[in-house]
Amino acid sequence: MNDELASRLNGLLPQTQCTRCGYPACRPYAEAMARDEADINRCAPGGQAGVDALATLLGRASKALDPLFGLEAPATVALIDEDVCIGCTKCIQACPVDAIVGANKRMHTIISAECTGCGLCVPPCPVDCIAMVATSSTPLARGEILARASAARRRFEVRNHRLARKHDERSARREAAARNAATRPVPISRKAVLEAIARGKAKRAAQAGKPDGSSPP
Predict the structure, then answer these.
(1) What pLDDT does 210 receive?
(2) Domain residue spans in the chain?
(3) How many other CB atoms sit within 10 Å of the CB of residue 144?
């Protein structure tokens, strides 16, 4: 795969990380296009202008957005009904750009300026308190999409680095705990102690010639 081409293709995507293209994030979709494994018309958030830009970069004819992957529409942001939110943190875990703040059993809030409108926070909400709200009546202009994409990509990458670091730290703690458990003496049960004492008495009795361990008359 041509990494430089994949990076250039990724730079033309809106970085919503919405997964509607069938890939887990914008970069994997760009890599698939670079390998000629995915078509250029799967990104609805990027709009028709985005498809045209991808076609130009790849030197091929453009085509219409594939409706199977969504339709071009005005930009949206998530909105939480704070009176209904139970603070379960499931939306925070789902947000790819850390645009939701809150704590366990505390009301959550969307950082509207950072929300990419991916909608990934909606399905996991157990109380249906999140709605996607349009921020304009028409789709964003291409320049505004790319301007927002740069900041969204940075937040996405920072989040991924943080999650990877936490994963590595947890793995290191588990490995350390496993090593400690392997070298820690195994506790001896009371039953095992009593059995050992009985064996000792029986051995001493046998050596003294008295099977029951009693003293001679």
Answers:
(1) 61
(2) 3-69
(3) 13
Sign of the C-alpha dihedral computed for residues 75, 98, 5 and 31 taken in this order: negative
Contact 78, 121 (CB under 8 A): yes
| 122 token code pair | 């909606």
pLDDT along the chain (217 residues), means of 10: 93 97 98 97 97 97 97 95 94 97 90 96 97 93 93 96 93 87 77 82 79 51
Q: Determine the CATH number of domain 3-69.
A: 1.10.15.40
Q: Parallel, antiparallel, or unpaired: how do β-strands 109-110 and 100-101 relate?
A: antiparallel
**Which residue in 209, 158, 145, 154 sits closest to 12, CA to CA?**
145
Within the chain, strands assigned E span 76-80, 100-101, 109-110, 130-134
Instruction: Give the tokens for residue 11.
Output: 């730079």
